[in-house]
Amino acid sequence: MKIITAKQYLSEKEDYSTSQTMLEDIDESVLEIIKQVKQYGDKALFQYTKQFDGADLTNLRVTDEEFKEAEKQVSDDFLSALKQAKANITEFHQVQKEHSWFVNKENGIMLGQKVTPLQKAGIYIPGGKAAYPSSVLMNAIPAKLAGVENIIITTPPLSDGTINPHVLAAARVAGADAVYKVGGAQAIAALAYGTETIEKVSKIVGPGNAYVARAKKWVFGDVAIDMIAGPSEICIVADETAPPAYVAADLLSQAEHDESAKPICITMKSKLAEKILLEVEKQTAELERKEIIQQSLKQNGRIILAENESEAFELVNEIAPEHLQLMIQNPSEKLHYVKNAGAVFLGNYSPEPLGDYFAGPNHTLPTSGTAKFSSPLGVYDFVKKSSIISYSSEALKEASDTIINLANTEGLTAHANSVQIRKEGSYEKLQD
Ligand SMILES: NC(=O)c1ccc[n+]([C@@H]2O[C@H](COP(=O)([O-])OP(=O)(O)OC[C@H]3O[C@@H](n4cnc5c(N)ncnc54)[C@H](O)[C@@H]3O)[C@@H](O)[C@H]2O)c1
Ligand SMILES: N[C@H](CO)Cc1c[nH]c[nH+]1
Ligand SMILES: [Zn+2]
């Protein structure tokens, strides 16, 4: 991790984004995997699961016995924690539910918008470097609240062919309909195109590594996707009221996700920057995942010195971080300066992991600058809308000349005729 100025940060930003060659290599593998899954279905899934996860599987779908076995392995305390988190996530997301609406206008006109849940949703749950039962709740609960009939989860198995029991327990608590043991690009291809065992879904959601993210990008269009959720990011704006030990702990909480995670702190105080750096070094030495953390700090860890708060917020909006923590005086009064961020945590007692697990808002958030144009995962991701139009004969007659005029101007006389024929009432005349 190093201390740099805002100018230096902006000039180096390009250098440490994923290199084009790396991306091309990943795409080459991903496209081949998608092709094989489309062609060979389950057979390709078994083969890739052996190759990438070291698991020699005989079944892809997690059986009832496997769920029961998993339940025995998780503690009551963990189950109770899951249920408390579920209650908070449900309470928060309940408010996001959208309802159909209809308006009756004069002359027998009725217009509206019908909200319909997606029939099938596929959730990817990462399983490579760590298992994420919390992501199961964050993705499945909004789908359930939206009314999705069939919620299926895919996640890579461990090399002994099992799925982390905590992930399976979370799938049960969240009410998922099925869990399949497959990860990476092959899981995304299976969800997008279907195989003998895995049903094709309407939308794929959930985070994952670069293979998962690129696969989602490639299948988009054949299936809907939520977003490209890349490596975790945290950006903390800290002033003299921020305890350096807390700032360091929060930066490290995201660094431990991935070697390419981005822990960034912006401060106006150079002394504070030095104290935070010391704390980061001290705390890293004590942490279990220190190798991953050190890589992340080396690649992407930055403490940026801003001239003043206004420059700090300009930078925040340019970075558009997944998570933004405002550890400054009166943070809620500064919220209006934030234009681009996935989630904003206010004050010294709202650390990012509170949002990862418990508070209620979703932890699947836009990353890699996409908070400039996208939003957290929500109930709205699992519904679609249809417009409803109903006119009476008088209402259509009244509007017919206008419509015919517009249609003829576009040279679309069949369109004009569809209205003209009703204006003349030729069908009704025949009935008489
Ligand atoms: N945004 C969020 O809400 C959120 C939540 C949890 C995790 N995450 C992120 O998700 C990511 C999880 O990544 P992960 O790797 O631990 O798990 P993962 O499940 O995304 O990836 C593991 C899979 O990657 C595939 N793979 C690995 N190496 C490959 C190769 N050389 N060629 C082709 N395929 C290959 C394999 O199929 C393997 O099963 C991390 O970056 C983490 O930060 C994000
Ligand atoms: N911080 C991650 C999203 O970037 C989500 C997560 C899951 N578990 C712990 N954290
Ligand atoms: Zn996290």
Q: Main beta sheet: strand number and arrangement? A: 6 strands, parallel
The quaternary organization reads as: single chain
Number of helices: 18
Strand content: 15-25%
CATH class of the largest domain: Alpha Beta
Q: Which second-level CATH architecture of the largest domain applies?
A: 3-Layer(aba) Sandwich
Judging from the principal axes of the Cα atoms, what is the shape? globular
Rg estimate, integer Å: 26 Å
Write up what this structure looks like.
The model has no long low-confidence stretch (mean pLDDT 96). Strands 1-11-10-9-12-13 form a six-stranded parallel sheet, with helices on both faces. The chain has 432 residues and is of the alpha/beta class. It folds into three domains: 211 residues, Nitrogenase molybdenum iron protein domain (Rossmann fold); 143 residues, 3-Layer(aba) Sandwich (Rossmann fold), CATH 3.40.50; 40 residues, no CATH class. The chain contains 18 helices and 14 strands. Helices cover 48% and strands 16% of the residues. The protein binds nicotinamide-adenine-dinucleotide, L-histidinol and zinc ion.
Key terms for this structure?
432 residues; alpha/beta; Rossmann fold; 3 domains; six-stranded parallel sheet; 14 strands; 16% strand; globular; binds nicotinamide-adenine-dinucleotide; binds L-histidinol; binds zinc ion; amino-acid biosynthesis; NAD binding; oxidoreductase; zinc ion binding; Histidinol_DH_monofunct
